[in-house]
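subagent[fold] <- orchestrator: predict structure for attached chain, return tokens only, no commentary.
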Amino acid sequence: MKKREQEWDLPEEPFSSDHEEVINRLHQYEVDFPDEAEMNRTVEAVKMYMTENTNRRSLIKDHVFNIIRVALMDITYIKPLYWIVSILLYTAGILFYWTGQNPYFIVLTLSPLPFILGIFEIFRGRDEGMLELEMSFKFNAASMMLSKLFIIAVFNILLNSLLSVYFAVVQENLNLLHMTMYWLTPFTMVCGLSLMIATRVRRNYSVACLISIWIILCLSLLKIPALEDKLTTMNKAAYALLIVLGTVLFIIQIKLLFSKTTSYFERNVRLETNY
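subagent[fold] -> orchestrator:
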């Protein structure tokens, strides 16, 4: 073992005899440092606890299962108000249908709203100044954001699907596949754009802005019936192309979110280490 005498930087001020005794004891304190052979033995001992790198497919599979596992735990951390408001919106959509409103317009308007509202929950840790604390958890802030994102996206798709099935049952000559593609198009595009804006704009301004813009766009369709008819009668290939583009945009924004959150944490760790 190598030993090194610890040097202490103490203020040059007069001390009592007790203080001088403490200082002398501190100067005599020695710190034992392990030699290289002992460090190598420690590294070899902990290797058995480290996961080996497997093929890329296995890593992706493990990562997806990890997100699902964290999502199941994070469901209880999403505020009940979010679930209540989302369900009330779709209940209102059903009521509007019985007043004579177009079911396509209703499902189009509602399709991205639960996800936009869910941005409150996805970025709540960041906006409330809890990002550093979440980074210290076993499942850090990036994993928690992804898990909430997964929960909210699945919940949104489930609500849209249930509403589409309901309209297909109560209204004759309504093509369920066509309606599904009709709401998937704005859903994927708006979700990607919502993440893009939310990662750049802090607090709740992004949510209010997105909801306002989306409602204005939907109301403009009522003022321009020809545009609404054109969107409703688009062929499936056009829908599929827009859905693919929206999905790609959504995936890119998820990757950017994950990388930004991770780099933020690593930058803070370096700063604290240098300090």
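orchestrator: received. Logging for downstream: The chain has 13 helices and two strands. The first helix runs from residue 17 to 27.
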